[in-house]
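Take a sample.
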Amino acid sequence: MKFQALLTLLIWPLLTLANTAENQATIDFLNIKEQRSTCLETEPNCQAETTNTNELSIALAGMGDAYISVGSFSEEQGDRSGLEISSMLNTSKNYAGKISGVLFSGRNEDNLMDLFSGFSYTAYLHFNQKHINPNFGIGLFIGDTFHCDNEDQEEGINEEDKCQEEMIITIYPEIGLAINLETLHIYPFIRRYNFNNHNTYGVNMGIRF
């Protein structure tokens, strides 16, 4: 039930935005095409000044595309790693957004287990390439973490009784490469969370809707 709720939370907003963006792109394309036809009928010389419809269709390609993916990531050093399920949308010609449910766990600097869970949103700038598309993004993670210190373990206190859940908010930069093969979407990336000092490497794999 929780998994279904998570999927609904991730998919529904982006599919709604995807439909809106795609409809707007179609309307813009048809309006410009109609203006071009009218111009050519009345003023033959305007052909050189009017945007070519083939170029316009290429520019609009990909707008409104939505991707659902699952992925994994790990730190450059240390034994932290995690999983995420994401929904990504090309909101406009050069911009995209991604919402993810994230689970991140591993040993901290004191060799004690940390567990991070929550949601992230990443905004991207990209080059609107069809098959191989570089992405540059900035993201926000909001979630909570369980943390135990050395004193808890040294005193022999039950970990479940002493560990406390704390809210965490962090911003991170991300660089990725979207590889689109028909409906298959592959997205390797590098990001750096500000709650550690190491790069995090990962890859998402999914499908386009």
Notes: The domain at 1-209 is CATH 2.40.160.20 (Porin).
